[in-house]
Design a protein that fits this description.
- It is built from 14 helices and twelve strands.
- With 389 residues, the chain is of the alpha/beta class.
- The protein has two domains: 241 residues, Aspartate Aminotransferase, domain 2 (3-Layer(aba) Sandwich); 133 residues, Aspartate Aminotransferase, domain 1.
- A seven-stranded mixed β-sheet has the order 1-7-6-5-4-2-3, with helices on both faces.
- Helix 2 runs parallel beside helix 9 and helix 12 packs across helix 14.
- The protein is globular and about 75 Å long.
- The structure holds pyridoxal-5'-phosphate (PLP).
- Pyridoxal-5'-phosphate binds next to helix 3.
- Pfam families: Cys_Met_Meta_PP.
- This is cysteine-S-conjugate beta-lyase.
């Protein structure tokens, strides 16, 4: 999309970094992949000279390789690997204290919504949800006890676009911590730290892992001070990723560019096809002309991603499509080699009260299609038959 030469160069370097990330050759043996250090603890040869890692909750070489890998890809200072995306998000939000207030994008991931409204609320951490595409709403939400802003762009599942730099600059001027859930774009397309964000978060279960076979979360801090604080939380809460899963994630991430590029080309075709169907009430994809916030998205991201949402008009019709499709997995989740069709109203956003859900544009007929690596003509033919009748 962006033919700017610097950006081209950046993408080229990124593709090379994906493969040559520093841990691709084992320093001790020359092995062609990071060894799995399946160990919970490490021997102290002498007490005067302790080993680099002493206990795997606090640090493990396999997990460390993954943490350094994601930090490099995001252009941050320190990376952290967690047992799930929610473990990454919840642990990072422990940077807040009782009495603090956080401003959060209103169509945030359903699990994050649940964490904020039913768990952190009990810890006296207060949340205001705003439409973050409307800067006036963000400014109006500021209170004397506001400490942080949580962004997600494109948002899930209506792919609303928030101006990252605008919000990050404003937050900085009020001494607020900024966190951004970068799951949908991945660092291949969007590097929020370069735009002023303090902590980037991932459900690595999705595009980074890419194969629907590992549950994991990642976080990257923009500076050493935040890195130190998050390290204390990761170790203190014990929300770490296990070593086998760390290895699987590294394996999946190496093909991130190849997978994203292919899926994205297909997603664009699917979005264009859907937009031509008179029976589809609405199509949400940042790559479509007329998508609100498309200009902002193109300024801050290098691509549009592989998730397309569309409204088939009613809950009955959505259920019919889910019943009749033959190729995609009908499931919660996204970002895998296989296409995944999900029904936000009854799956990812089931925890959200119906009125709140409607207010946020998540209609009863809304479906979310995560385009995988199948042949796009087959996927469209399959969807065509599922929509008919
Ligand atoms: C899936 C997801 C999460 C939660 O991640 P888990 O790995 O399922 O815990 C958070 N944010 C977004 C945008 C997601 O899609």
């Amino acid at each position: 999309m962006n033919k700017d030469q610097d950006l081209d160069k950046k993408q080229r370097k990124f593709a090379t970094d994906l493969i040559h990330f520093g841990g691709e050759i084992d320093k001790a043996t020359g092995a062609s992949s990071v060894p799995i250090y399946q160990a919970s603890t490490f021997h102290h040869e002498s007490l005067a000279n302790p080993p680099q890692h002493d206990y795997s909750r606090s640090g493990n070489p396999t997990r460390q390789a993954l943490e350094d890998y994601i930090a490099k890809l995001e252009g941050g200072v320190r990376g952290f690997a967690f047992a799930s995306g929610m473990a990454a998000i919840s642990t990072s939000l422990m940077l807040l204290s009782a009495g603090d207030h956080i401003i959060v994008t209103e169509d945030v991931y359903g699990g994050t919504y649940r964490l904020l409204t039913s768990i952190l609320s009990r810890m006296n951490i207060e949340t205001t949800f705003v439409d973050m595409t409307d800067f006036a709403q963000v400014q109006a939400a500021l209170k004397p006890n506001t400490k942080a802003v949580f962004l997600e762009t494109p948002s899930n599942p209506t792919l609303k676009i928030t101006d990252i730099k605008l919000i990050a600059d404003w937050a900085k001027s009020h001494d607020l911590l900024t966190l951004l859930d970068n799951t949908f774009m991945t660092p291949y397309h969007q590097r929020p730290i370069e735009l002023g964000i303090d902590i980037v978060l991932h459900s690595a279960t999705k595009f980074l892992g890419g194969h629907s076979d590992v549950l994991a979360g990642l976080a990257v801090t923009a500076n050493e001070n935040l890195g130190r604080r998050l390290k204390i939380l990761q170790n203190g809460m014990g929300t770490v990723l296990g070593v086998q899963d760390s290895w699987l994630l590294i394996r999946g991430m190496k093909t991130l560019k190849a997978r994203m590029e292919y899926s994205e080309t297909s997603a664009m075709k699917l979005a264009q096809w859907l937009a031509e169907q008179p029976s589809i009430a609405k199509v949400y994809y940042p790559g479509l002309p007329g998508h609100p916030g498309r200009d902002i998205h193109e300024r801050q991201s290098l691509g549009y991603g592989a998730v397309v949402s569309f409204d088939v008009g009613s809950g009955e019709r959505a259920k019919q499509v889910l019943d009749k499709v033959k190729l995609p997995l009908v499931a919660v989740s996204l970002g895998a080699v296989e296409s995944i069709l999900s029904y936000p109203a009854m799956m990812s956003h089931a925890a959200m009260p119906r009125e709140v859900r409607h207010q946020r544009g998540i209609a009863d007929g809304l479906l979310r299609y995560s385009v995988g690596l199948e042949d796009i003509e087959d996927l469209i033919d399959d969807l065509k038959q599922a929509l008919s009748g």
